[in-house]
Amino acid sequence: MALDPPGDIGTAIGRPSSILLAQQAYVVASRNETTAAAKSRCDRTVEVTFWIADPPAVSFYSFHCSKPPISDSKDADLEVEPHVLAAEGRFVLLRTRFASGDGEYEYFLYKGDVKSPSLECIPLPEDCMLDGVNEFGILPRGDTFLLVGFYDGLMPLDYDLRIYSSEDKTWRTEKLLNPCPDVGIIIPEKVITLGEGVLGMVDFRRGMLVINLLQKSPVARYIPLPEPLPENTQKLQIYSPSASPRRFRDLACSDGVIKFIEMEHRVIVKETREIAPEKPKNPIQNGVLHDSELIWRQTQKVVESKTKMEYLMNGWWATTWTREMESDFWLPGCSIDVDDILVEDSFSKLLSGQSDDANLLFKNLNSAWPILSTDGDDILYLKSLPEFRGSNGWVVAVDLAKKTLKAEERADEAHSLGRYIPSQQIFHPCTLSKHLNITPVDPVHTINLFDTWCKILAN
Known about the structure:
Oligomer: single chain
Pfam family, one: DUF1618
Strand content: 35-45%
InterPro entries: DUF1618
Protein name: DUF1618 domain-containing protein
Organism: Digitaria exilis
């Protein structure tokens, strides 16, 4: 059944200069001034609509597909849920797959425009080799764009760039030599724009490749990242050599300055007593064996002897580093400890009402997945959850310079709703809001949208 948009659009004046865009889609037929449509390769009519909120609130997009004529019924043809692959300026790249399609992914490029937003179905390259590309970069060129996918080459010391031009609607492949083979292969986990025609392919463990796509034959430059903090180094060694540090690292660029941040969490480990199993008894000692007792014993679970480990969050601290694009060194920035952050009383009271622990503090939340603002300020966004693998929590904004915290403003009657924030959900900071003709969604309606989205995913 189709769901309506979250009511009144709100009364906020102006649009935020940047937003945090949710990666996962809200699959429903909902429309506003941002709605744009396109035909898929399998003859589906696809609609994409954006719902903008002022950070630290998260902005959403809705996705709907149907056969002509367009209907408002929920489409069951989606084999892979739509998700954002990249966002830059007025452009957002989405990927999905239809059960009735040809088995290949479908890519859609949304272009924001205050008068006439548009949606374009991106054709596949002739060899269809995009399955190995999970990270894309978008290079805006006025109203046109280049779409760049990073693909491991056939040789161990090189890469392939899969480049799509919106001007001639064609793909091409550029070979790229590995500038630092001793480090190994860079596996991008994030792609950022570093300047006009320049992309940064970020591997949060091994470093970043800087690629100028305006060069006739692109050449990559390697930038290593600062070494992990001591506790993080041990965690990466214990968990897995291939584990990603993205949970506690981020990198962004603003006005030609690259900023890097790393968090280190303090965890208290509590060990409970061993549960001693019941010593088996010789049944001959019981004398008469009643059926009821025998049946009761068969239904009892065997108590195993084990030690239970409990992990409690005890705060975190973070440090930043900066560097100019052409420099060969990192400069230390600021350091901040969660104990030094000023938390508003209203948020502290909200925390105590969302947990069995009446004394729950911000420092005890599982705050991770840092996102640096791209507005040139010192704002850090964090996902903060009461439980490590929970889903009800908040996205908060920490001012690293002022050491203050801002959480999304919400009406008192809505406090009990919590927020649906999947622990692995990725948010894409972008400036799409500058190119849309829409007023930011009022906080109360944003909550309703989150709550509805949560129910949809649960079903």
